[in-house]
Design goal:
- This protein has a single domain (2-300), classed as 3-Layer(aba) Sandwich (Rossmann fold), CATH 3.40.50.
- The protein is an alpha/beta fold.
- Helix 9 (253-265) links the parallel strand 7 (238-243) and strand 8.
- Strands 1-2-4-3-5-6-7-8 form an eight-stranded mixed beta sheet, with helices on both faces.
- The longest helix has 19 residues, at 78-96.
- The chain contains ten helices and eight strands.
- It starts with a strand and ends with a helix.
Length: 304
């Protein structure tokens, strides 16, 4: 794993990672990580994709990892800037390797970014992968999340830490798994060592500040309006995989709502759901199966 810096159009230094192949890659896959984590956690996944002939890059989003000045603070207009960062990084990759297809891989919050990305910059990429996506909440769910976050921002300020928002986003995720351990993060994986690594990582486990979450939820509400969905290229090859026991997708309800919206628009999504799997399927007991299925799909897609 190598690292490099991408200088964003607003001057922000974005910390990035790269995993290269020994021969000409079939495609370049850029990973957009989830909330409260960082790109270096995808080292195993990237190496498996390298072995399959795919070059991989990732970045630490604003407010995350080595990019963050303060963990959880995306900065002014940071959510939209973070999505713009993805596009700028991918466009630079296209300039550097003009004949290499580009694939965006988003996990969890990174899947949310990717779902918004394809309505803004869908023409930049040749395929999309979604992992651990929360799907699409109902209008009421999204309104409620935004309203609570706006109230908390008014109550404590733009950048203060909020136990309420921590509970709102993560508090109920572990209720089905509390008997297995006391970390509160057993919902991530059935592999105790993977949970321990996450808990002990000082760059993991936080939630964004109220200002950043307000930006996130506002953009998420706008993303599921008809005019946003209408901008998604219907020919974009898309693969979604998830664990059936992942609490993030509301027992598949929000995933199915998202898939229905995409289908109505004409975007066909290949799906793979793993029985008993939790949020981080690439850190799960059956991750070899998961990566094999992903590579099989990648190899079946006509790129570029």
């Amino acid at each position: 794993m190598d690292t490099f810096k991408h200088t964003a159009s607003d001057g922000k230094a974005v910390h990035c990672y790269s995993w290269t192949t020994d021969s000409k890659p079939r495609a370049l896959i850029h990973i957009a990580h989830g909330m409260g984590e960082h790109g270096a956690r995808y080292d195993w996944t990237a190496k498996q994709l390298n072995e399959a002939g795919y070059e991989v890059t990732a970045n630490d989003h604003r407010g995350h990892g080595q990019t963050a000045e303060s963990l959880g603070d995306f900065g002014a207009d940071g959510w939209h800037r973070a999505i713009a960062d993805l596009n700028e990084i991918l466009l630079q990759a296209k300039r550097d390797q003009p004949h290499t297809p580009l694939i965006l891989f988003g996990h969890s919050m990174g899947a949310m970014m990717s779902q918004q990305f394809i309505s803004r910059h869908g023409e930049t990429i040749d395929a999309l992968i979604l992992s651990g996506s929360p799907g699409a909440g109902s209008r009421f769910q999204m309104w409620l999340l935004q309203t609570i976050t706006q109230f908390e921002r008014w109550r404590i300020g733009d950048k203060a830490e909020s136990s309420l928002l921590q509970k709102l986003l993560f508090g109920g995720n572990n209720k089905d798994f509390d008997a297995e351990g006391c970390t509160g993060y057993e919902w991530l994986s059935r592999v105790p060592d993977q949970v321990t690594k996450y808990v002990e990582d000082p760059l993991c486990g936080f939630v964004p500040c109220p200002m950043s979450l307000c930006d996130l939820f506002s953009a998420e509400r706008a993303n599921w309006k008809a005019e946003s969905i209408a901008r998604i290229p219907t020919s974009l090859p898309t693969y979604l995989f998830s664990g059936s026991a992942d609490p993030i997708h509301n027992r598949m309800i929000n995933i199915n709502r998202m898939l229905a919206a995409y289908s109505l628009h004409g975007l066909q999504v290949t799906t793979r759901f793993y029985t008993g799997g939790r949020h981080e399927m690439l850190n799960e007991t059956n991750r070899d199966e998961v990566i094999k299925d992903l590579v099989s799909w990648l190899n079946s897609v006509e790129l570029g």
